[in-house]
Amino acid sequence: MIRLLPLLALVAAPAHAQVVSPPGVTLGQVQSLMDQSLAPVNTKVDTLAADGLTSANRQQALRIQVTPDANGRAVFTYPMPYATGVKPAVTTTAETPNGAAYRNDASVEENSATNTQVVILVQRVPKTIVVSLLGSVTSIIAPVTTPVWINVLVRAPV
Questions:
Q1: pTM
Q2: Were both Cys, which of 3, 42, 141, 153 would link to 91 (CB 3.0–4.6 Å)?
Q3: Among the CATH numbers 3.40.1130, 3.40.50, 1.10.3470, 2.60.40, which is that of 54-155?
Q4: Over 70: is that where the pLDDT of 134 sits?
């Protein structure tokens, strides 16, 4: 919470500073407002720190390189694990090489996020899709099995 103070001016003098208050406001009122503005305020940030999590381990953002298995799955272990029972939210974005005719897509396997790790699924999707009317069935989405860069954001629930 931010508290606004009446307009005050500090007049600098060689030996001291003098507070000049607006007309109709006493120096006692100014001092009271200043004391209130310096008092600790209970904010959401204060309550977050009370549960033992800091911003450093509440949210972890990393750029990692993974080599998925034949099914396009890669297990990522967090550098700083969360407390037992904490199930963080995980967001992933795969990087695609310049000039590629496809894009890499990364997602989180459902119910795979634990307090220590998550399973990331990586697939290769063509940028353009051509549909044949001859009745042939072709899988156009394929799992990635080569190294790929993934941007991962892991955040503990609030």
A1: 0.60
A2: 153
A3: 2.60.40
A4: no
